[in-house]
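Subject: Sanity check before I submit

Could someone independently write out the structure tokens for this chain? I want to compare against mine line by line before I put it in a report. The sequence has 380 residues.
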Amino acid sequence: MSSSQTVRVPSLVGGVPTKADFAPSIIFAVAYGLSVIPFIRRFINKDSRTWTLALGTLPFSIERVVVYAIRASQSHDHNLGDTLSKGKLVYQQVSFALGFVSFASDAVAFVRAVLVNTTLEDPNRGSVDKPRQRYWYRRASDIAGLLWMVSTVSGGVAYSKMPGSGDHQDQADQLYRLRYASASTALFFFVAYLVALLAIRRRIQWLDRRAIDWVCFILAVSCIVPIYRLVVLHYTTSFLNILPSTPPLYPSSSLTTTTSKATFYIFHSLPELILAWTIQTLNLRKVFNTGPFGDWRGSDRKYGIVQLREKGVYVDGVGVPKVVEEKENQGVTPEREQKKSKGFGIFKKFSRKDSDGSDGTTTRPSEAGADSNADLVRAV
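---
Independent answer below. Compare away.
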């Protein structure tokens, strides 16, 4: 017996592409292609247009069209005893293993925008500026985004072992273990984020609960994918890309049976499609009350304080005082203005204390009285 016959290889998630995959692959490829249409409609409208917000979902949808097109092609040309392209199989498995993580990065961006909104001053709702809270919300979001690298890196390393796993048992074993590590860490972070959001949902003042509910929905549906993967990742088979030509053709452990394929499309492919359509269809700026880039500012000191929006659009009388908004639109930050003139005592306090989050006290132009505010406007 050859080494390829004796090595136990981790079974392909979704099984080997067979003729039974042709129809569902075409359906999913078309469905993902159509999901781009709501994004285009949203992008055309200047009040709903987004650039970097939900940056992961659009490329994910386009990439899924490619994946299912490749799967449809391989399944259409399927013949017993054939040798399938190992590169195409590896590409599909990497895509299935790591693609759904893009929803997590989008969820982090959504939550960041919602949390930062709770720290902004708005006389209409009675909120005051909270620079220190804003600073820590942003840092927590940065860390949350980086944590997903654990799942992504372990998954990438895992499937780098896949090409040689058919001939080397040690590489097959590494692939087996690292696939589990990637899926389990992804599920852990999804659940942790979901629990954290449910915990703060009623505890943070001015928090938009409807927006948080949308993020919780995204996280909850995302959890289905790694749960399914953890259920099936323990299966192994005796072949990788060389299809069997004699019975038994596809044992249940190969995940290539009709039942196995049905569960793959229901619990892996369908949740991803639902999330892609959901995120592409939503007016993200209105739901999360943010701009086309989300909360992209890393520092108030460097970029200035963002103005609170209403339904994703700037509205007069909402947010920080008008003078700050005008200066920000002109590209003049408090720090730059401080360098231009030494007579802005009020603005110095504002840029040093309010902007960097190092001091919990706030000194805003609107709180300095009408005379001081008028002096500031004349100076500008």
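---
OP: Matches mine. For the report I'm noting this point. DSSP finds 16 helices and two strands in the chain.
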